[in-house]
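the two lines:
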Amino acid sequence: MIDLLLTRYNYLAVVLLLGIGLYVVIDSSNLVKKVIGMNVFQTGIFLFFITAAYVEGGEPAVITDGGGPYVSPLPHVLILTAIVVGVSLTAVALALIVRIYAEYGTLDETTLQQIDND
Amino acid sequence: MIEHVPVLLIALPILAAVVPTILGIRFDRVGWPVAVLGMLVHAALAVALAMTVLGGRRISYEVGGFLAPFGIELVADAFTAILVLLIGAVGLAVLAYARTAGPRTNSFYGLYLLLVAGLTGMTVTGDVFNLYVFLEITGLAAYGMVATGDRADAAVAALKYLLIGTVGASLYLLGVGYAFVGTGTLNMADMAEKLATLGYDSPLVLTAFGLVVGGLVVKIALYPLHTWQPDAYSTAPDSVSTLISALVSTVAAYALARILFSVFTVDFFLAVPIAQYALLAIASVSIVAGSLLAVTQTDIQRMLAYSSVSQFGLVVVGIALATPIAVVGAIVHLVGHAVMKGGLFAASGIVRRKTGVKSVEEFDGLADRAPIAAACFAVLSLAMVGVPPAVGFVGKWYIVVGAVRAGQWAVLAVVLASTLLTLAYFLRLIERMYFTAPDHGAGHDGESEPVGDAPVADGGQPAVSTGMVALIVVASITAVALGLVVPAIESALQPTLLEVLGL
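prediction for all of em together
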């Protein structure tokens, strides 16, 4: 068990990031914190891909004689794309938050619900 | 030439999406004409694609010339063609509605074309990561469109949609990650083979399945992951709720079918029956819970949104049964639901503009105040309940026959019960529209105030154009006529169906 934690601590970090991120998205009543939680959650996924792609002593996938082992560049490319997607989502989310604040003057979800019910 | 159509179907709307914003620097109101042009080209390409692949041919396109398992592959078969045709047709039709109903900003039409590009991309892609990217493009466009209305609560609904939608898409991505770690490929066909050699009962494959399906179920909005949907549909402008209710969940359900049949394959269900039962159980719960919630709603558009939760349960039941007849039923109901639910949202928008009516109680005597909208609403409701010969009946019938042949009696009972519940929430509206006199004492007998967020025409009433009325009339006629052409659709699908299901 200890051995597993020492050699696979990256995966432990993945699980923690996913858990913390999802918890903040669900539990926080502050809309900005929800967006931060969403980012933390996505970071967990990024770390998962990058960790899975790690090869001990691996070289970049430029094939040479007698080289290798090579690292697959694909997961890194995927995560670059996913980071771009994440940034766009954050931008849209923050734009919506600016508009909500301008309309209601609050970013608290429970207060917003009370206003909505009245 | 024809093999380039799949990529043009995505690339042209994306390019066109930039045009309204650029032209918007110099000109006002160029968005609508650009969108019409873009959608006409998209629809023409969709027809060309359908003519080629509906016979059973399969088109494959390698993006950028990178060979298939390494590069991104776009694949079009008969199922793809039907969905792409639906996207093209609905996209064009809703533009006729949006001309008067708005929103009129240039940027809105940029989002509109981006949404169409994203949906088409989800439909034609043969690569699981590419599917994620298009899922997010669709999502981003949809979040933006929901918030385009003047209503303040639309922004709150859009943010809620964004947070839940992003978590859903991220779960899907995590599932793709597990499958990628196990197989080292992202191409759907290649992954299907490698998953089989990996062993379907390996924990890696099971986790990947759970995460991918879980993520897509959020996007389809099955109970209990539907919570974004009623808010988004009811606060968005009418044009947007018409478009989104008709297409977004529909294409997500198609993506689920694609992943199940082209990546995990029917053999996975045979090897791991618990996965099939779990999916059937989620879908059945969604059917019942969605209907019950719809019955309790007072707001018309929220009721329609909850009805979608229930109807998509039905579609997923068809997919999860994974027999040829049930899958045909699921596809027919997918297309039929898009036409019927889009039409119902459009009709409810017209009713609100003409009479200010928003809630179920106010529907009393509506047939006198808005005869055409009331008639279309009634026809579409009855089609949704499943009155023959409308498409709602045919889709359900195939799914029911599929359930009987598969011996899934509990599912059969749920499907039949759902028809009664659907009848419960639609019949009360028809009864109010045609057989209840308007309540004069309450002071809103045809003189109700028009809602504030609609563009106001000369008479002080929000405008209802011929194009808007034409949309709901065409939707009503299509909902009935589609039911009659289902045998033709079924025979066109048959060769592809047997191939996809591996029979």
